Amino acid sequence: MRRYVVSIVSTIVFAFLLLIGNAGPAAALTQDQQRLVDEKADAILTTAKDLIGQAVYGYYNVNVTPMRMGCGGYVYYVFLQNGIDLGTLNNNIQSELGEYVAKNDLQKGDLVFFDANKTDQNPTTHVGIYYGNNKIIHMASEELDIVISDLSGSYYTKNYYTARRVIPTYLLPQNSTPAGSIVETAESLMGIAKYGSYNETKLTFNSPEFVYYVCKENGVDLGTKYSNQQARLGQPVSKDKLQPGDLLFFAITPGGNITSRSLVGIYSGSNEFVVCSYINPKTGEGVVKGNLSDAKYSSKFVTARRVL
């Protein structure tokens, strides 16, 4: 639980996050969104618990071999192993990520912060991950390493500082961003837009035309309605680095190339994407959610591009 002086760069980042990070309590989620958040929280806690007996206290860095890390490094590492890059090992900066959450509203996966020295300039001295049942799991000290502690303990009640809900911020599309708006538009057309010749009035499109239209509706002109040309836009992105709004390209057959009308999807997060596909010849309804884990898609995946 040792403190350290925040570097100049960290101080600048912290000041910026201070301006944007205190925008009120955590927003309410839909039932489906909450399910995704709960699943991610459970996975994070599983990783956190699996490190008991493996990782030891190592001040403010993260070493994988041997596994040594401080409290902020432990949080960073556990989240990173589950696809969420908090971008910092610094628990002071971590205390401004995501959204504020009241102590009586804590949920699994929330970050809980403590300040054992209220006279210095650093807002926090320690961080843990809420485990449920009024407990946190954390890299406690050189003597204890990783433990699960009850928040009713004297140290935790006396030094409690704040809590932040970060999982929804990183897991769910943020509709205030261009990428989030594109995903929202694509999802809103599910069950409405149909597969067919390009017609904005009737909302009929083939796969790359659907992507073109959705982007255009959000002020992004791709300049082409052809898959093979869209696949050359922006920058390539690896499958493990996908972000909402990225474009996914699929061949017609496994191992094939991208043609002018190959399947193109808009990544929406959690391994899912929105795509306009000719799946029902009777109705023409084609805007659906796909999953990259599905063999019919994974075997035909060719590339992904970040165009925003």
UniProtKB/TrEMBL annotation:
Listed GO biological process terms: proteolysis
Major enzyme class: hydrolase
Range of residues in the leader sequence: 1-28
Annotated NlpC/P60 domain residues: 38-167, 176-308
InterPro entries in the record: NLP_P60_dom, Papain-like_cys_pep_sf, Peptidase_C40
Enzyme Commission number(s): 3.4.19.-
UniProt GO molecular function: cysteine-type peptidase activity
Keyword terms of this UniProt record: Hydrolase, Protease, Signal, Thiol protease
PROSITE patterns: NLPC_P60
SUPFAM superfamilies named in the record: Cysteine proteinases (SSF54001)
Protein family per UniProt: Belongs to the peptidase C40 family.
Name of the protein in question: Gamma-DL-glutamyl hydrolase
Gene expressing this chain: pgdS
